[in-house]
Amino acid sequence: MLELKDLRARLSLEGAPDRDILNGVTLTVPAGEVHAIMGPNGSGKSTLSYLLAGRPGYEATSGSAHFLGEDLLALEPEARAAKGVFLSFQYPVEIPGVPVMTFVRAAMNAQRTSRGEAEISAPDFLKKSRAIAERLRMDPDMLKRPLNVGFSGGEKKRLEIYQMLMLEPRLMILDETDSGLDIDALRIVSEGVNALRSPDRAMLVITHYQRLLDHIRPDRVHVLSAGRIIASGGPELALRLESEGYDALIAGAG
Amino acid sequence: MPDVKENIEAGTIEAVRGLEADRYSEGFVTDIEQELAPRGLTQETVRFISAKKEEPEWMLRWRLDAFERWQEMEEPDWALLSYPPIDYQDAHYYAAPKNASKYKSIDDVPKEILDTYAKLGIPLREQEVLLGVEGAKETAAAARETPRVAVDAVFDSVSVATTFKEELARAGVIFMSFSEAVREHPDLVRRYLGTVVPPTDNFFATLNSAVFSDGTFVYIPKGVRCPMELSTYFRMNARGSGQFERTLIIADEGSYVSYLEGCTAPMRDENQLHAAVVELVALEGAEIRYSTVQNWWPGDSEGKGGVYNFVTKRGDCRGARSRISWTQVETGSAITWKYPSCILRGDDSVGEFYSIAVTNGRQQADTGTKMIHLGRNTRSRIISKGISAGRSNNTYRGLVSVHPRASGARNFTQCDSLLIGSSSGAHTVPYIENRRADAQLEHEATTTRLSEDQLFYARQRGLGEEQAVALLVNGFVRDVIQKLPMEFAVEAQKLLEVSLEGSVG
């Protein structure tokens, strides 16, 4: 479903020197699978998620990224979203004055329009929103407040997952969704994420820690270091990292 | 490394150029036979205008006095605006469709003019319920019966039609063009004209006092709640002309009126002058809500053409417990110089100013308000939202003044500026003069840039770039939009979207 081949990328931002951030990532995520990307700070985990979502400034210099057979890197971010790419942000931004539901409905309808589908009706939208808020144990009043404004870190993460469940993407990229969540919230959010697991969806779960993977069981685990995948394996690889740390593995990879 | 911002700028200019014709859909010209005053401004011009309007002698005197005064005045230069000197002799101070003064009813109004208003979404036949804004109908009509709005349509220097006059008259409400009011209600006009904005007030107001053309006169009698929204739709059409409207609204004791004002002009590559004066008088316990959606032609993206909008608007809360509320959405004009103000004379009176000012391309806006607290326990509230895109400049300039008798006065001011792109400017110039130790004055100001992070976040969710900007801007102005009558709120939101099209790369 998602195929990355020798993907190399550079970060060019105004006022900063260009920086190589991915040094040849090859990765295949088949439909129906959940892959975890682990690695120390600065290893390129968030970079990979931004590159796949199309954040301006993140440029692929060589290699390729295909999603459902289509060249992902050639699409604008909104076109990727319409194809079903969803990024749950590590640090969701505040959108003052735009209530959560207004934002999500606009996004949903923009995606539908771009796919040539009819817009969702207000009653259908409300019904769906209510059901999902309930599943994530969210106070419905939260959804009337401006998106992410004045919310705690944990509430913001929950709102990311609310949006994901509303938009029902095909490729879900979770960037450190566990940070800021307490144990109970982590369980509730993970249940929500797991509900979207299906044979026609794929998921990339980016995390530092094993604990999220206790709730969202990955099919494969990849370890990213200095912009390259240095090890891949089954769920047991995450457990090994938890006990031995990254250093041993990185040293081993030389 | 390629400069990302530079690319955006180049892209913006390209996009705006391509969009311009669609962007300003009101930019057409109506081809109709015109009657013009000779170019230039002399005593003779003033006499010409007064004669055209068949005015009584006192009105002509008033104009001539103002003209004499104006000749000794100098154009103010304190605003943060830059424009080449205006040649006041190089314009027509009166322009009207031929025979305009002879229209007895809507049936006499030439088809070209009716078509003009229909094209602008302002039907002038009463059965064509107003406002005919697309979208407003869908939402409003679905929810409840579409509200009715009475319209005074001003075309260049004359009012061409006023709707619902009879029905309003049954409620005792006087709603007519200013020219008619001078003839039909001279006592009321004489009693109030120039009592809020004296003919000597400032350069532009004095110019207006000498050459004002048409505008609207409203009188709401004691205890009457005006049965519908009143509105004036100003249209500048003639080449080389200016528009100098004069509006006077009097709300007698315990009455209420909500008044809306809309403005458009054709796309022309010359600068056209618009210098209006609006006076509001609220007597004891009366309330006036005045809303403006100003969409004069702003000029092209390089700053060629556009309307120079120098406007004096002031309300006098003359009676105790009276209330005046200004709400403005300013998206048009090359230059905006405008400070709708409240004189809080009556005890316990309330003044409000809610403003959204958008500048794009090369537009310049210097706008704000003055709240003059004279009476006891007077309260005022200022919410200003400035949005600057392209290479434009947007200034909030305000004064809150608390006088010695104004015990217990309170003001809350909030000025927020939003910058889009890297070549626009936002400025905030708040003045506070306080002569009371017990006054409570609060001032909050923020300046933010529409961030790449927010844009990317919205685009990641599937919103196109322009949609994302529109949504973010709507969020920024939400608390002001909510103050507008619903029909106008829908129009204002669309206008914001259109004004900011092409503001990002």
Structural summary, described in words:
The complex is a heterodimer of chains A (254) and B (505). Chain A has 254 residues and is α/β, with parallel strands linked by helices. Chain A contains 9 helices and 10 strands. Chain A has one domain (2-253): P-loop containing nucleotide triphosphate hydrolases (Rossmann fold, 3-Layer(aba) Sandwich). Chain A has helices spanning 45-53, 77-83, 100-114, 122-135, 153-167, 183-195, 211-215, 236-244, 246-253; strands at 2-11, 19-29, 34-38, 58-67, 70-71, 85-88, 171-175, 202-207, 220-225, 228-233. In chain A, strands 6-7-8-3-9-10 form a 6-stranded mixed beta sheet, with helices on both faces. Chain A has a 4-stranded antiparallel beta sheet with strand order 2-1-4-5. Chain A is globular. Chain B has 505 residues and is of the alpha/beta class. Chain B has one domain. Chain B is built from 12 helices and 24 strands. In chain B, strands 4-3-7-9-12-14-17-20-22-24 form a 10-stranded mixed beta sheet, covered by helices on one side. Chain B has a 6-stranded parallel β-barrel with strand order 13-15-18-21-19-16. Chain B has a two-stranded antiparallel ribbon with strand order 1-2. In chain B, α3 packs antiparallel against α9. Chain A binds chain B through residues 12-14, 17-18, 53-57, 76-78, 80-82, 85-87, 89, 92-98, 102-104, 106-108, 110-111, 114, 146, 163, 167, and chain B through 1-5, 451-454, 456-465, 467, 471-472, 474-479.
